[in-house]
Amino acid sequence: RHCTDIICCVIFIVVILGYIALGVVAWVHGDPRKVIYPTDSYGQFCGQRGTLNENKTILFYFNILKCASPVVLINLQCPTTQLCVSKCPDRFATYIDVQASYRYRPDQWNYFRQFCKPGFNNPRKSVAQVLRDEDCPSMIIPSRPFLKRCFPDFSTKNGVLTVANQTTFKDGRGKTRNVTDLREAANGINNVLDARSVGMKIFEDYAISWYWILIGLFIAMMLSLLFLVLLRFTAGVLFWIFIFGVIGIIGYGIWHCYWEYDHLKGIPGSDLTVYDIGFQTDFKVYLQLRQTWLAFMIILCGVEVIIILMLIFLRNRIRIAIALLKEGSRAIGYIMSTLFYPIVTFLLIAICISYWAVTAVFLATSGEPVYKVMANQTLCKYANLTCDPETFNTTNVTKLCPGAQCTFAFYGGESLYHKYIFIFQLANAFVFLWLVNFAIALGQCTLAGAFASYYWAYRKPADIPLWPLFSSFGRAIRYHTGSLAFGALILAIVQLIRVILEYLDHKLKGTQNSFTRFLLCCLKCCFWCLEKFLKFINRNAYIMIAIYGKNFCTSAKEAFFLLMRNVVRVAVLDKVTDFLLFLGKILVAGGVGVLAFFFFTQRIPVFAQEVPMLNYYWVPLLTVIIGSYLVAHGFFSVYAMCVDTLFLCFCEDLERNDGSTAKPYFMSASLHRILGKKKLSPKKA
User: Fold this and answer.
1) Which of 27, 155, 218, 357 sits at 20 to 30 Å (Cα–Cα) from 645?
2) Which residues cross the membrane (predicted)?
C-alpha cells in the first residue's frame, strides 16, 4: 500500500481549512439574531437582551391593511411603521377617539400610547400630523401573537368572519370598515394558525409515544437482521417464488384475454377495429372490441415468452447471483460490525449538514442594516431608494412624498466581503456537497475493504484478519483519502451544476420561451443521467481501491472494463439484488407498520391498557413505518455493498486464477459447483 492521489489529498485538506476559515469569517460578521428576532422599522431586534426592546418581544404593525398577506409580513417589508411591543392589543380603539377622551379618561391614552413610537406623549398633536408622521397607529384591533408578530384575532361565528365577535371596525380615518376587508390576510393567517394547532397536537403525540416509537424501530432493526440472516437460506426460494408467480399471473392474463376475445364473438359491433371508432375518452369503449383483447393477449404472450427464454438462457447466471446473495449473508454473519457502520456515515453527514446550515445562516445575516424609503404614493420617485434614518427628516423627500418614511428594509452592505456573499454561499454549498460525497465514499471503501478481506481469505473464517472493519477504515484514511476526495469532487461538481440548473429552471418558469425551457429540461436530464453513471463508477472504483490500493482513475478504469466483460452477470445480479432487498424493506416496514397499527388503535387486548391517549394515532404510526423503512435501508445498504464487493472479487477471481494448485480459486464451494468446476486440473502451459 502507498498513498494515492496525493495532489487531490493536499487540495482537499486546503479546502477544508479554507472552509473552516470561511465559517469563522461568517461567524464574526454574521448575526443569527436577525433570523430569530423580528426587526422593527429602525433595524432593532424585538426581545434582544440588553436593549430597550428586551421586554418587547412582539412586532406590531401600525396599519395591517397595507400588508397584502401574512407571507408578506413574515418575509418582506410591509409599507407601514413596525414597532416592538410587549403585548398585542386586546381591544378596538382609534387615535381620534382616544385623543378626544384623554382628558377625562387618561387610562385609555396610557394604554394606546404603548403602541406609538417610543417617547411620543403628545395627545394634543393634530390627528392629521400624527397620521402623516405615523407617530401612532390610526387604529388598534384585538390581536394575538404568532411568529412573534401581532395578527388580528380572527374567528368565525355562525359562518361569519369576526374579530372579537365584531364584523365591523373603525379605521381611525373617519370610515367604518368590514372585517371582510382583511379576508385575504385572514384566510392565510387562519390556515397557518390551524397548522400551528395541528403542530402542537403532533408534538404532544410525540412527547407521550416516543418510547413506543423507539420500541417499534428496535423491532425493525431485529427484523432486518433476521431477514439478512435468512437470505442465506431463502434467497433462492424467494426469487423463484416471485418469478413463477409472475409467470402464473401473466398466464392467467393470457387466458382471461382469450376468454374475453371468445366471449365477444358474434356480439354486434365487437368486430370493429380501433381505427374504425377513432379516439374515445371512455376507455371502456375499447374493451368492447375483440381486437383490443387480441392485442392484449399477443403482448402478454410476448412478455411470457421473453421471461421464459431469459430464465432458460440466464439460469446459470441467476444461480450465480443467488449464490452471491447467500455468500453476502454469510460474510455479514462473520463481520457483524459492518451492520452498524452506517451510523458513522450518518454522523459524518449530520456534522456536514449542521456546519453548512450554520455557516449559511451566518453568511445570510452578515450585512449591516439597510434602510429604504417607504412611500404610500406609487408615483414617488424616491420610493425604494436607500436612506439614512438620522437625516431623513431634514431632506425634501417628506415634502415631495407626504407620508414617506425611512424604514429598515434588509441586511446588506457595500464592502468587498458583502459584495461576494453570494459567491461565498456557492462555495459553502459546493464544499458541503464535496464533504458529504466524501463521507459516503469513505463508508463504501471501508465496507468494501472489510468484505474483500472475507472473500480473499482462503480458509473462511480462519484466514479473515482480526478487526477487518477497523483495519479497512484505517487503510482508507491513511492511504486513500486523496482518491476518495477525487471521486467525491467529480460527483460534487456535477451535483452543483444540477443545483444551478434547478435554480435557473425555477427562475425561468414564467418565461414564454419554449426553446429555453426545452434546453433546460434536456440539460437537467443529461446531468441526472451523468450523476447516476458517476455514482455507479465511483462505487465500483472504491471497491477496487479497497482491494488493490491503486489510484482513483486506474481503479475506475479497471472496474469499468471488468464490469463490461461481465455485463450480463452485472445486470442479472443487480436486478436480483434490488428485488430481494426491496422485498425485505417492504416486509420489514409493512410488518412493523401492521403491528404498530394494531397497537396504537388498541386492537391488541394484552397491551390495550398501555396505549397512550393520542390526538392522531397516525403520527407515531407513520413515524414507525418511515423509520422502519429507513432502518431497513441502512442495514440493506451494507448488504448491497457486500454483494457488489463479492461480485467484483468473484470476477477478478475468475480472471486471475484457474483453480490449479498454483492459482487456486478463492470462491466458495457453492460457486465452484455452479460453475461446474468442482474437479479442477492444473492449468496447461
Assistant:
1) 218
2) 7-28, 210-230, 237-255, 293-314, 334-358, 431-458, 479-501, 579-600, 621-641
